[in-house]
Specification:
13 strands, alpha/beta, 306 residues, Rossmann fold, single chain, seven-stranded mixed sheet
Length: 306
């Protein structure tokens, strides 16, 4: 495991797609940066307002209106404010953007430059030396899209800070995360107290969240290049509905699968063949998806780094 170089000069920016990700992903790291005299800023992308099953269970309602979602989002915003107090952060350390929950991928696709500019403004204003954001392999669509947005935004920030990715929802093989943060008993207790403030989430998922919170925090240095061979072999029956989304600092392009710049090799794998007239500027990311509503929250295919 790699060592953890923290000091009073450390300026940590934590990017959390939803309330509770800051605690589950970085609750120990936040405390340890503050303990050595460093500074921490928390960027909250959404209020977690589109979280229907806990809301249905707690409020005993089946149909959830727009006003219900707004009320739920306000509740979760309040929960995160109480949670970060246990981690040692003041209210002004939180910067909420209020983006649409379960809509970060769509925002990346449809409002690319405005979204990247918002992140770059915060990064340049705070001046982080270390930025932590969700892992690309995280199966929640908002988490994977948050990774892509952060990486694309950071490509335009000079000097570039250190970048770490953290897993929450099945972020791949944990052996691939070489940075591990262990807790003192006091730090672990503070993290559990912070987690308990997210009462709306603990009601249905308390055991799973506690198990995550009691595990050592792990991080992967971001920035390792991928390859043009795609990891997916989708069944032909789905091809008419599939889409391929490609994101780079130059912009985002969303193709129908049959129109995408891909070719199949002799082994049956697909390979991205980027048009020579449009050089691929790193970092690059590609996502296979079905562009239709689904009751299933998590990604089936997710993102791949190029």
């Amino acid at each position: 495991m790699q060592s953890l170089p923290l000091s009073a000069q450390t300026r940590l920016l934590v990017v959390a797609p939803h309330p509770d990700d800051e605690t589950l992903g970085c609750g120990l790291l936040i405390q340890q940066v503050l303990a050595v005299g460093g500074a921490v800023h928390l960027l909250l992308l959404t209020d977690g307002d589109n979280n229907p099953w806990p809301q249905r269970y707690i409020e005993r309602r089946l149909r959830i209106s727009d006003s219900d979602r707004q009320r739920w989002g306000a509740r979760r915003r309040s929960e995160v404010m109480h949670a970060i107090e246990h981690l040692g952060l003041s209210a002004d350390a939180l910067e909420p953007l209020g983006w649409l929950d379960m809509g970060v991928t769509r925002r990346l696709r449809d409002e690319t430059f405005a979204s990247v500019a918002a992140l770059q403004h915060i990064m340049l204003s705070f001046g982080p030396t270390l930025v932590c954001f969700p892992a690309l392999e995280d199966s929640h669509p908002d988490h994977g899209a948050a990774h892509v947005l952060c990486r694309v935004a950071l490509a335009g920030v000079t000097p570039a800070p250190v970048q770490w990715a953290y897993p929450v929802h099945s972020g791949g093989d944990l052996s691939e995360y070489p940075i591990r943060i262990d807790a003192t008993p006091e730090q672990q207790q503070r993290k559990l107290l912070a987690l308990a403030e997210h009462r709306s989430q603990m009601t249905l998922s308390g055991r799973r969240m506690q198990r995550l919170a009691l595990s050592p925090e792990r991080y992967m240095p971001a920035g390792v290049a991928g390859h043009a061979r795609l990891p997916w072999r989708p069944p032909a029956i789905l091809h008419r509905w599939l889409r391929l989304l490609i994101a780079t600092p130059s912009g985002v392009k969303d193709w129908a699968w049959r129109d995408a710049p891909i070719a199949r090799d002799e082994g049956g794998s697909y390979r991205l063949e980027w048009p020579l007239s449009q050089p691929l500027s790193p970092p690059g990311f590609v996502k296979l998806h079905l562009d239709w509503p689904s009751p299933w929250i998590f990604d089936h295919w997710g993102w791949h780094g190029l």
